[in-house]
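Subject: mismatched residue count in predicted assembly?

I count 599 residues in my input, but I want to confirm that the predicted structure covers every chain. Input:
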Amino acid sequence: MSLTPARTGDAFATDAEVLAESARAARELGLHQMGVRPTLRTYIVETWRRRQFVHSLAISKAYAENQNNYLGQLWAVLNPALNAIVYVIIFGFILKADRGLENTVAFIVVGTFIYRFFSDSVTAGAKSITGNLNLVRSLHFPRAVLPLSAVLSLLASLLPALAVMLAFIVASGYFPNSEPVPITARWLLLVPAVGVTYVFSTGIAFMTARAVANVPDLMNTIPFITRMLMYASGVLFPIGHYVSNPVLTGILDYQPVAVVLNLARQAVTDEPNIPLDPVMWAVGAGWAILALVIGFVVFWRAEARYGRE
Amino acid sequence: MSDTEFSAEEIDFEVDAEDLPDAPASQTPLGAPSVIVDDLHVSYRVFGSRGRPARGAAQPSRVQRLITKARGMDPTAGVTEVKAVRGVSFVARHGESIGIVGTNGSGKSTLLRALAGLIPPAAGTVYVSGTPSLLGVNAVLMKQLTGERNIMIGGLALGLSVKEVTERFDEIVDFAGIGDFVYLPMKAYSAGMSARLRFAISTAATPDILMIDEALATGDAAFRQKSRERIDEIRQQAGTIFLVSHSLASVKAMCNRVIWLDKGQIRMDGDVETVARAYRRFTRSGGADD
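Triage response: the counts match. Full output below for your records.
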């Protein structure tokens, strides 16, 4: 600190002077350090500033997803519909895993549509860094944009699919052994139920994005985790009827994936076993916020390391 | 490393002599430092095989292989740490246009990526002003999307708003000279077209620091002329340019300073003529004089 020039303009006239005290020079010249993690606050502000980027990337991706087919965007709807049909046939009609349900078809259809959105989000989040390395390696922007847009893109495809889901539910009333589901104002609750699912899925996508970016091997474990969660969350059958241990039932009922499925079913199915329950909504909102906060912080902590090969 | 790869005849293959003026880039007074690189070290991880000894070489016995595997040192599934940049320091100033030369694998691209904040340093620090924009060899952002969407995504990533990108859209397409191809997926583009579009996107926002990594090599003469003018413009607006190129002619035409990297370290740093002459002598001798 022996240099005390009269004017700052003269302070770092030669390169040697600059390098001798690079940190002070950078500070006085208003340069910022590269390759270091920004503060959490800066990171949130920066990510928020790129919200149009998140949106544009999500829409482009949702569109690009199906453009190599003859039926194009129709697949965004056909895919989850075929998925639901497969499970309805196997678990609803062949295995008759419908204990205590009045309308098995509606139960399975809601389960598969909503769960599919969640599991696709986990997978898309996991691939969001590794699958966009071109972007990551050429442009400098908050990487949180990538998992955010991956899940938003799935939400964009989910919305038309939900119309098909509701059509399935109405149609299921005409099936044998199924009680018709009345269309009531309660169906509007599907909007917050999907909202909670979306927020929760985004939080988990942040976690898987970081995990797979750091340890690519983990990508191989994701299909098993989502499969396991599917059977443990009562997507296809009311799991409570197969488990008698009260502690285990409590865990299985209040774990986040089961809760978000329960919320959607509260809204659009008419099962006496799935009544409107404010506690479930509070638990669901709590899980969603917890997942988002933890996921975002976990993702941010590795910000400087994404894109290293 | 093979000598033939850098033979003197090949060095200037991409530029026709009449493309570029003999005089070096125009001299503008240098401003305050815009980039400070202080003892930078960068290493990166490479996943996958480090390779087994070729057939005929001594193979480890089955037992030895089992032991290395059990200790998590399976040579075919390992991670290798490559030290690409080893202790580089320099200062770049506003209005400066710096060429970076060196043989393949000398750390040029890695250095640029570290300057752009795309790879964190293993040690040392990089300070820059503003947001750097890196124009890499792989010019496509998202090849399954149309040029139109790539313009939007690239512009937004650089921090422009939707409105600003829309305003500059025609200008970008014009500059890239791709016409109606802009409405086709970028996978249908030629290498030159992709490079032109990416260059147009990257310079649309007049970056403080523009880094170009071999991205001009695929362009034709007309495009090189246009990009040279654009680079001069950015420099006059007090931007700083880094240009990695194998073509000494490009470097001579566009830069007013050259850094010669060799095995991750600065071998020479100075005015274009001096460094270019020394580097040419080095490559003519087959790069084997150390």
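Chain B is about 35% helix and 25% strand. Marking this ticket as 'not a bug'.
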